[in-house]
Structures are given as structure tokens and as C-alpha cells.
Amino acid sequence: MRLRTMLTSAIIAGLVTAGAVAGPASAGTGSASDPALPASVTVKVKNINNKKGKSTVKKFLTVDVVVPGTFTDTFSDGSPAGTKDVWWSVEVRSTGKGSCGGSYGDVLMRKSEVDGRTGGSWTIDLPIENTRKGFTNYYLKSGTCKLTAKLDVYRSTINPAGSIDKEITATTSFKILNATNVAKPAASRTTVKKNAKVALSGKATYLRADQKVYYKTKAMKKGTKLVLQQKVKGSSKWKNVKKVKVGTSGRWKTTVKVKKTTSYRVVFKETSTLRGDVSSVRTVKVKR
Predict the structure, then answer these.
(1) Segment 78-120, tens digit of pLDDT
(2) Which of 6-10, 69-73, 168-172, 252-256 is the least confident region?
(3) Which residues contact 133 (CB under 8 A, 6 or more apart)?
(4) First CA to last CA across the chain, in angstroms?
(5) Cβ proximity of 128 and 56 under 8 Å
(6) What is d(CA 87, CA 161) in angstroms, rounded to the nearest whole number?
(7) How do strand 180-182 and strand 225-232 relate by DSSP bridges?
């Protein structure tokens, strides 16, 4: 099997860019500015759902750039010296372990202008191919990646007031996450008398993808923590009841005391490598 990086994923299927598109809901947002110019760069990014096959993360990356307009230059005696545009460039780079690009990183976007534009907005779709080619299975390694957007702004003028030589850097992060599944809890009894004890149980799994295993569903590791939640009849809010730990084969079991008709569900919270999941609901009714 061969590890893919962000750059190889983008190149294989072709990087897509578009102008002036509003940013989608994002996993991370980074922004930096120099109000004195004024100039700023903002980057928004989505998490990646790591799965087998071909897929595309729509509007994976959104970049917004603002830079100063033209400057009316003058000579030392105050006479006109023409107008001067700003030259600027922005580069977005992913760094980190595994598929993030390493310490040097992968360049996901590079844009430059020298025609007087005062910035712009761009989005990038990220095509991914976790497929088999010949005898090689390609995959992404789950984990957290750092994203850096560096904006360089430059303008050379005779009048020192118009000269600019600035670097502005915004940072954020995104995750490559493998899917998880928390099954609907089973109950030893679904209709009981008030204050009866009921055993709840279930199973939790995740999608594994690494050098040894190629996108296969596996039992959650022993000791993984889940949260049992309940919603009593008549209430609109879910409340945490207790934490439960996964045992062998991804299975968990616990006991609850049921005073009123209550619905139960189990939650796995998102980690740096795994997506969060919420089980379907199991209701235990109390007889009158």
C-alpha cells in the first residue's frame, strides 16, 4: 500500500479553483491582517472524510485576500511620479505527519497579482483517489494537518510613504478523519416497572486505513470511551448519564435504573483521527 499526501491527491484528479465564491462551513478558520496598510488574508478549510474510492471534498479550501489599492507617487519636490500598483502573492501550504505533507509541506494553492486588484476570493475542491492502481492500494492516513496561508505584499515607490514590504501569515488546521459507527443500544428489557434496572449494551467500530489494513471496518480498541446519554419522556434535552468503556470486540455494557420512560443513545466524540458518531435511540418504557 502507498500513502497519499494532500498534493498527490489534488494532482491526480486535477485541482479545481473558482473565483468569488462564499466560503462554506469550515473545520478551521485562520485570519491575519495589517490594519495600517490595510491588508489581510483569511483561510477556511473543511475536514476530510477518509474513505475508500474516488471522492471530492467540495469547497475544501476558501481563501480571501485584501490588499491596498494604487498609490499616487511623487518626487521629493512634490511633483507627480505616476501611480504604483501593489504586487502581492498568496500561498497556502499543508504540513504535518502522514498525508499532511511532512515538515516542508504541500502547496495547495498559489496565486499572485500585479495589476492593481485589491485582492479576491477563491475556493478549491479537493479530489481524492483512494483506489487500487496495479498492485498498489493508495490511502490517506488520518490525523491533524496544519494549514498556513502566507500573503506577501510589495510596492516600491519614490515617496517612502507608499513603499510596502510585508509578509502576513494566517494559520489554522484540518483533520483527515476515518469513519466510526456506534450501533443502536440493545436493552435487556424495553418495558419495565418503575425503578427497574436494565442492562444496555452495544458495539462500536471504525474504519481502519494504514500500511497493514486497507479501509476495513474494525472493532473500536479496548478502553475507548463512549458517553451514554438519556432523554426522559417530556424533556427536550439529552443529558450525559455516564461514560462507558469499550471492551473486547468493540462491545460495551452498562446498567441503568429506569424511573420514567427514557430514551438512550451512545455518543463517540471526534478525535484527531476518527469522526464522531451518535447511535440511534433505544427507548425503555415504564409501566403505569
Answers:
(1) 999 999 999 999 999 999 998 999 988 889 989 888 666 778 8
(2) 6-10
(3) none
(4) 59
(5) yes
(6) 16
(7) unpaired
Please report, for the chain, the start and end positions of each structural domain, with discontinuous segments joined by +: 2-177, 180-286
Among candidates 71, 87, 95, which has minimal Cα distance to 5? Answer: 95
Distances from the Cα of 30 to the Cαs of 51, 92, 93, 168, 174, in angstroms?
A: 26, 11, 13, 12, 11
pTM: 0.84
Q: Which CATH homologous superfamily contains domain 180-286?
A: Immunoglobulins (2.60.40.10)
Q: Under a CB-based contact definition with an 8 Å cutoff, are residues 265 and 282 in contact?
A: yes
| pLDDT of amino acid 194 | 95
50 pLDDT above the threshold of 70? yes
